[in-house]
Amino acid sequence: MLLEHLQAKLDAIAARHLTRTLRAAETPTAPRQTVRGADGVARRQLMFCSNDYLGLAAHPDIAAALAEGAQRWAGGSGASHLISGHTLAHERLEETLAGWYAPHVPHARALSFSTGYMANLAVITALGDAEAEIFSDELNHASLIDGARLARAAVRCYPHADAAALRAALAASTARIKLIVSDGVFSMDGDIAPLPELLTLADEFDAWLVVDDAHGFGVLGEQGRGALEHFGLHSERIVLVGTLGKAAGLCGAFVVAHARIVEYLLQAARPYIFTTASLPAVAHALLASLDLVQGEAGRERRARLQVLQWHLRDGVAALLERHPRLTWRLADSRTPIQPLIVGDNAGVMALAARLDGAGLRVPGIRPPTVPPGQARLRIALCATHGTADVDRLLSGLESAARHLEPA
User: Fold this and answer.
1) How far is CA 256 from CA 309, 314, 321, in A?
2) Residues paired with residue 240 on neighbouring β-strands, in sequence order
3) For the chain, first and last CA: distance in Å?
4) What is the Cα–Cα distance from 244 to 117, expressed in whole angstroms?
5) Across-strand partners of 180?
6) Is the pLDDT of residue 37 over 90?
7) Which fold has domain 60-294?
8) Element housing 143 (H / E)
9) Choice among 112, 182, 187, 278 that is catalytic
């Protein structure tokens, strides 16, 4: 009975053009990868779908640091942080991150996690107790949404980036503890949250501001410290979550907040307490990654990303002028995430398939990841792309547009 029940669900997913498939890469993360398709054939593709925004995943300094870490720390950590898994490598990483964000979060302390998903679940479930109310942007990442669902707090969603609506919701709340929760950079739209306005509201209503800066870390700010540096924010009300598997080129995550908040997470956050600590070798290598992010290499790569972003945006704008009957539109983004919104699920998958056939990997993103009717290509740029790579993508989109434009 169960198998038949699940097959009916799978058939319904397929009928809505929502089936997801796995592809195996045979080469390391880079703008060009050899990837096995659904037919089992390996093909060389130009990738516009990685979150390796600074192109550090293949940086030789990180590879060397990872090898050095493995020689020093060998394999796994063996247990959770609170049992025996917390090593000097983890401690140094946390101390470095706390120092990074000291100008933005007074009395800062950091706590490391294996993934950003776990870090968000930890923060939201631990702080969102029965005395709290969570105010969540409607386009927040799934991990924030799931954290809110698991928390004991009341949850109220506010319209995307709408500070006025948030203010009204906060004014109506009688909760003792108020948590404003928002992405720093929204992962499917690429826009930056209005964090200064959110922090002003936090001050006005005695609330806390939880920021998931997974896609801002490494990309925004003069030293790559993300949305807080981008806006020059400074407040003990900030609880920052960052991930280290995107612009940092490795894996893992962290929380930086007032030391008392972090101490409470250490005592109460179940995803932290009951999970084996990440590989010490990775924590060791992340120190090399942070040096690259904040140094000259990071600054040069962030500048290169800006050039690529505008080159792509100018090219897509010109393409849409040439094909006015297409319903495509490019989202208003000033980050490496450049979504081309197509609309319907079948249409975006047809477009993605045509690009795939031309050796361009730009997956279609469909509900529930994005709202119904807003299926899109999530074009992700990396600093290791060149303008010629962007031109090749624009050429592929032009060819698809000529084929797909309504008569």
Assistant:
1) 29, 37, 45
2) 211, 256
3) 47
4) 12
5) 135, 209
6) no
7) Aspartate Aminotransferase; domain 2 (3.40.640)
8) helix 142-150
9) 187
pTM of the model: 0.94
| Domain 23-52+297-404 sits in CATH 3.90.1150.10 | yes
Is 246 labeled as catalytic in the residue annotation? yes
- For the stretch 258-267, contacts whose Cβ atoms lie closer than 8 Å and that sit 24 or more positions apart, written own/partner, are 258/105, 258/106, 258/107, 258/108, 258/109, 259/107, 259/108, 259/109, 260/107, 261/127, 262/109, 262/110, 262/111, 263/109, 264/126, 264/127, 265/111, 265/122, 265/123, 265/126, 266/82, 266/111
Instruction: Report the alpha-carbon angle 147-380-186, nearest 5.
Output: 30
Q: Which two tokens stand for residue 268?
A: 């109460």
The one catalytic residue among 86, 141, 246, 284 = 246
Q: Which two tokens stand for residue 157?
A: 């969603």
| Per-residue model confidence (pLDDT) at position 39 | 80
Catalytic one of 81, 86, 215, 230 = 215
Amino acid at site 192: I
Q: Convert the pLDDT of each residue in 243-257 to its tens digit.
A: 999 999 999 999 999
Q: Count other Cβ atoms within 10 Å, centred on residue 213.
A: 29
Instruction: Give the phi and the psi of residue 18 in degrees, each rounded to 5.
Output: -115, 10
Give the pair of three-digit tokens for residue 279: 């590989």
Asked if 187 is an active-site residue, the reply is yes
3-state secondary structure 316-342: HHHHHHHCCCCCCEECCCCCCEEEEEE
What tokens were used for 159?
Answer: 């319209």
CA-wise closest residue to 233 among 339, 102, 113: 102
- Please write the tens of the pLDDT for every residue from 11-27: 999 998 888 888 889 99
Percent pLDDT > 70 in the chain is 100
Evaluate whether 193 touches 211 at the Cβ level (below 8 Å).
yes
Chain segment 201-229, per-residue pLDDT in tens? 999 999 999 999 999 999 999 999 999 99
Q: Give the tokens for residue 311.
A: 């080159």
pLDDT (0 to 100) of residue 407:
60
The mean pLDDT value for 148-177 works out to: 98
Instruction: Examine the pLDDT at 200 and tell me if it is beyond 80.
Output: yes
119: left (phi over 0), alpha (psi -120 to 50) or beta: alpha
* Crossing angle for the helix pair 60-73 and 88-101, to the nearest 10 degrees: 140
Task: Break the chain into its structural domains and give their ranges.
Answer: 23-52+297-404, 60-294
